[in-house]
């Protein structure tokens, strides 16, 4: 046993020694470096759309790359092409900004191996923000950038990594597109009307008969991270009836049933006035309410969110 233990300890010690002997330094990481300041100035020029400052920061043989491209043979963008592309952001976005991703800061890395030109890499983690001027699409995204700078602090290479799907919604928004059908008469509208009027007549069972047993319900006066089960909603509504008398429920306008093409959604939108009397002091209250009920293909309500001013009930 002792021999085995000694052998095991020997092999462990050798293993640890081998592990640490494989660690080799390959340069220096800087938290402060002139190259970082160049990148900062370049970013400010990009946001402001200053083409002269952008051009001055780049080498003549500059190359820009899309870091998430699937084309392994891609050639980098030339200096002129990259400048033109960069200017499109400031021209097409309102509220355009690039800032450090929370909790991050840029690094400057000067490698030792294969770096006869004494080039420096600067890496940043950023948040890009803006609203597309034409379409109103919010263009917020995280972004990672790599800059290679010459020893005289000119930017030779930029590799950008960010979510290119941001452009999908912008592109789609330049043309009109329908997304289903709106009905002003439909069986799902009938279901919502019967449900509300059952509640008006204190028929609690029928007021909840059209909900799916796994329906999730939301109240705009509560956190939208909180949902209520059908049983919880029944209890809350009974508490409401214990404290308020319903004099009448009045439909405002007419409900709409939206049958969406995208996502195969089915929603009834309806607007109501609840005419109430608070039992504690006999105060009359008119409570405006908007309801959004989502249906499954079998005509059962699977989700509901109600919008109203809860403060009116306690004034």
Briefly summarize what is shown.
With 315 residues, this protein is of the alpha+beta class.
Structural commentary:
- The protein is an alpha+beta fold and 315 residues long.
- The chain has two domains: 24-172, Nuclear Transport Factor 2, Chain: A; 180-313, Nuclear Transport Factor 2, Chain: A.
- 30% of the residues lie in helices and 36% in strands.
- The protein has eight helices and 14 strands.
- Strands 1, 2, 3, 4, 5, 6 and 7 form a seven-stranded mixed beta sheet that branches.
- A hairpin with a 5-residue loop joins β12 (266-278) and β13.
- α2 packs antiparallel against α3.
- The radius of gyration is 32 Å and the shape is elongated.
- The relative contact order is 0.10.
- The mean pLDDT is 92.
List the helices and strands and how they pair.
Elements: H1 2-21, E1 27-30, H2 34-48, H3 51-57, E2 58-66, H4 79-92, E3 93-100, E4 107-111, E5 120-132, E6 141-149, E7 155-162, H5 166-172, E8 180-183, H6 187-200, H7 204-207, E9 211-219, H8 230-243, E10 244-251, E11 256-260, E12 266-278, E13 284-295, E14 301-307
Parallel strand pairs: 2-7, 9-14
Antiparallel strand pairs: 1-4, 3-5, 4-5, 5-6, 6-7, 8-11, 10-12, 11-12, 12-13, 13-14
Helix pairs in contact: 2-3
What is the straight-line distance between the termini? 82 Å
Task: Report the average pLDDT across residues.
Answer: 92
Indicate how many domains the architecture comprises: 2
CATH T-level topology of the largest domain:
Nuclear Transport Factor 2, Chain: A
Beta-strand segment tally:
14
């Amino acid at each position: 046993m002792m021999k085995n233990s000694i052998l095991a300890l020997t092999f462990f010690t050798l293993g640890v020694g081998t592990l640490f002997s494989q660690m080799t330094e390959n340069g220096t990481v800087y938290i402060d470096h002139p190259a970082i300041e160049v990148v900062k100035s370049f970013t400010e020029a990009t946001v402001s759309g200053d083409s002269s400052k952008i051009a001055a920061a780049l080498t003549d043989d500059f190359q820009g790359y899309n870091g998430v491209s699937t084309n392994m043979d891609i050639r980098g963008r030339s200096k002129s092409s990259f400048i033109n592309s960069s200017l499109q952001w400031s021209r097409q976005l309102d509220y355009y900004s690039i800032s450090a991703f929370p909790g991050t800061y840029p690094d400057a890395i000067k490698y030792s191996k294969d770096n006869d030109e004494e080039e420096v890499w600067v890496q940043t983690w950023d948040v890009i923000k803006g609203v597309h001027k034409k379409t109103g699409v919010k263009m917020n995204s995280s972004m990672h950038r790599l800059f290679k700078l010459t020893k005289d602090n000119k930017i030779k290479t930029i590799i950008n990594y960010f979510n290119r799907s941001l452009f999908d919604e912008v592109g789609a928004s330049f043309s009109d597109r329908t997304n289903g059908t709106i009905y002003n008469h439909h069986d799902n509208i009938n279901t919502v009307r019967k449900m509300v009027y059952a509640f008006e007549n204190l028929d609690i069972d029928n007021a909840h008969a059209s909900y799916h047993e796994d329906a999730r319900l939301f109240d705009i006066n509560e956190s939208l991270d909180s949902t209520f089960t059908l049983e919880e909603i029944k209890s809350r509504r009974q508490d409401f009836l214990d404290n308020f008398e319903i004099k009448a429920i009045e439909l405002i306008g007419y409900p709409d049933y939206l049958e969406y093409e995208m996502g195969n959604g089915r929603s009834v939108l309806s607007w109501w006035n609840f005419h109430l009397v608070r039992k504690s002091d006999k105060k009359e209250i008119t409570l405006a309410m908007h309801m959004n009920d989502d249906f499954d293909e079998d005509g059962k309500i699977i989700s509901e969110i109600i919008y109203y001013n809860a403060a009116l009930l306690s004034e």
